[in-house]
Amino acid sequence: MNKLSLIIRKEYVQRVSKKSFLLLTFLLPFLFVAMIFLPLWLNRIKSGEVRNVVIVDKTGKYAPLFEDTDSYRFLHGDKSLEAYRADDNREIFAILNISSDLLQDPSAATLYSEKQIPNDLSSLVNRVLTKRMEQDKLASFQIPDLERIIEESRVSFNIHTIKWGKDGSEHVSSTLITQLTGFLSTFIIYMFILMYGAMVMQGVMEEKTSRIVEIMVSSVKPFDLMMGKIIGIGLVGLTQIFLWGILVGILLVAGGLFFPGLTQTDATAPVQAGGMAIDTSALQWIAALQSVNFIEIISYFILYFIGGYLLYASVFAAIASAVNSPEDTQQFMVPITLILAFALYVGIYSSENSDGSMAFWCSLIPFTSPVVMIMRIPFEVPLWQKLLSITLLFATAIGMACFAAKIYRIGILMYGKKPHLKEILKWITFR
């Protein structure tokens, strides 16, 4: 046990002290938070340039509808479209040509420009013209006050979802928050199992090709050597997850404090209640977040990460010990990656039907359960399913570790030729 702890410590300290680990651990949270806040911040920055848009309206009823904005100035055209195209006027950014009544011919409006039409300009033109076409359509029915009737009949409704607790308590719930929690957990566990499992394979391969392992096995049992590497690298993964969670949380809070109005839109505008501004949307989100049992999700996440990592890391270690070059390991990575990708696919789509047969069985099969079950847990999976899934996962992981150790103890010292399947089976039965 003392030698095993030394190997675990060596693997852990060696990897967490690398510059690549420190750089990835502390840089990635900043990149993740920047992906959230930077697009919102850039979307609010105005270039200050006002572009001229000429409207050539042969009908005369659409041009007066356009009003100038902070980005565009609309000018009534007094020449034909051909004349404007022949005129080399760099001050004109775009030309809106309307040749006839759009209600009779919707294709009669075209927006021309020498550059790519910005999305905000095309959206603005579509919105203005659509509103006028709707008014013309309503007027064609010749029903008094029809437009007012339709406007008053429009209703905005959003159903409130409440989740009952076992103690009879009620909590505001949100399917969107539940799905996002599952998506994030599923993607992280998928990436970490694949990334740190491949790290085990790379570490075993490096020791074998450099012949360092020949010296190490003279004083350490092959099983302790393999498990020390697997556990040490697994602890590195848990450390990185822990640090990422803390850093992302701090950065998100800091971003909200420094940019309090950055994510506020019309739909989240505060309302006045008793002289105090209350952001009703924010309150609903906070209430919905409180309904999610994050302690349970984090606890099961750690369990499934440990079980899934142990399972796949054992497979990776056995593969690396049985081959002779890093190139040979790539062909074995394909089926493993496909299994994990299939589990990710099932996990993502199980959010729409978390109790479906595909989601149920894949959350019990050990090779897919770490990715699929962590997606289902936010949707209130029965306790017996979670216990059965974890039992099968850890039982299979321990069995796979013992199975891989028998291949590892012989394959790690084999050089020169690629072993056949029959020969590997002999390694397993060899005592």
Could you write a compact summary of the structure shown?
Helix 8 (222-258) crosses helix 14.
Keyword list:
four-stranded mixed β-sheet; elongated; 15 helices; 8 strands; 431 residues; two-stranded antiparallel sheet; single chain; alpha/beta
Helix content: 55-70%
Mean of residue pLDDT values: 80
Distance between the termini: 22 Å
Number of helices: 15
Extended strand count? 8
For the report, how would you describe the main beta sheet? Answer: 4 strands, mixed
N-to-C order of helices and strands: HHEEHEEHHEEHHHEEHHHHHHH
Strand order of the largest sheet: 2-1-3-4
| Helix/strand structural class | alpha/beta
Net shape: elongated
- Unreliably modeled segments: 263-280
Rg from C-alpha positions?
31 Å
Strand coverage percent: 5-15%
